[in-house]
Amino acid sequence: MRAAGIKDPANRRDFLAGRIALRGFTAGILGVRPGELTAAYSCPDCGTGPELDHGRPGYRLHGAPAGLILSLSRSRGWALLAAGGAREPEATVGIDLEHSSGVGFPGFDDVALTPAERQLLAAVPPDQATLWRTAAWARKEALLKAHGTGLRVNPASVDAFAEPTEGVVLVELDRVALGLPAGFVAALAVAG
Question: How far, in Å, CA of 105 to CA of 102, rounded?
Fold first, then answer.
């Protein structure tokens, strides 16, 4: 189990709480008990099944796919969940929640931003630069989750502020409406 490999107790607790919340969220949408769901995570490299503990979250209900596309993001004790109907096989969703404390390390711009984003950042007032970086990262993660690649794609190759490609919707979510404290940014991407 992936949680067993997380050494920091707070991170392990947050990881487990996110997984429990996702199961309860999914069960609530489907109108079933959480225990009726079997985890069926999906990874482009490893496949799909109950033995996987990574990749796109998903569940099976009574042996069949549960019929939802799901996304989960956690940051500093908070979690966001997203779901959509799986009627369209190409439809995907990606949600990301980030706190500004995660983008303040030296070299972030080099590993995370495209040249065009670095140009945009140069025009941002210094007191807003950290929040701008956080928004860029949240948008990138949401897009990468929606496309099913995650960070197997170099984030510095993904332009978070370019016009979305056809069939992709990318929005920043309202932090206040979500009840999130200052310093958080959330983004949602829907593709297909």
Answer: 7
Dump the DSSP string for 112-135: H--HHHHHHHHTS-GGGHHHHHHH
Nearest to 18 by CA among 48, 45, 39, 44: 39
The residue among 25, 43, 35, 28 whose CA lies nearest residue 149 is: 43
Distance of alpha carbon 91 from alpha carbon 98, whole angstroms: 24
- State pTM to two decimals: 0.91
Q: How many CA atoms lie within 13 A of 155 on its CB side?
A: 19
Contact between 29 and 68 (Cβ < 8 Å): yes
Domain ranges across the chain: 1-66, 88-192
Backbone angles phi, psi at 178, to 5 degrees: -80, -10
Q: What digits encode the pLDDT tens for the residues 100-143?
A: 999 989 999 999 999 999 999 999 999 999 999 999 999 999 99
Give CA–CA dist 31/110, Å, rounded: 46
The DSSP letter of residue 145 is H
> Residue 93: which H helix or E strand, with range?
strand 92-99
Q: Spelled out in words, what is the top-level CATH class assigned to the domain 88-192?
A: alpha beta
